[in-house]
Specification:
- Helix content is 26%, strand content 37%.
- The protein is of the alpha+beta class and 156 residues long.
- The chain has a single domain (20-152), classed as Roll (Pnp Oxidase, Chain A).
- A hairpin with a 3-residue loop joins strand 4 and strand 5 (61-67).
- Helix 3 packs across helix 4 (123-133).
Length: 156
Amino acid sequence: MPEFETAEVRRTPAAAPPTFAFGDAQLADFLARMRNAILATVRADGGPHATPAWYHWDGTVVRISSPGWTAKVSNVRRDPRGTVCVDDPLSGTYVTLFGRAEVVDGPTVREESWPILCKYLHEDEARVRWTRINAESDRVVIRINVSRAVWRNAVR
């Protein structure tokens, strides 16, 4: 089970403490509701490479589907460090998930991609989308095995 902690937030003495804290259920609900994630990988020169992506969180693993030829996939193959940040721009709440990434390819890619597609699309539309995005059979899934999560509670 990943270690969860609250990010340190500087507050003035008059500021009220957050009115809620994330537990497993709140974390799962937040990640299920939010639309996009930013995936950060490590470029060959050591700098960050950040890209928006659809994602799926299952409680321990974040999945992101991608064409196999992208920079993010090359980065993960070379350096498995991965970070995913999901934010709610309305409330200011965010979750950052850190972990070891791996690239899944081959016959299990459709099965690994399916929860991602179904998060965003009706099942019939997901089938059509899968056929289109994997027309070249070059799809892979980046799986981030989360070891740590940090969040900031909503700004009130």
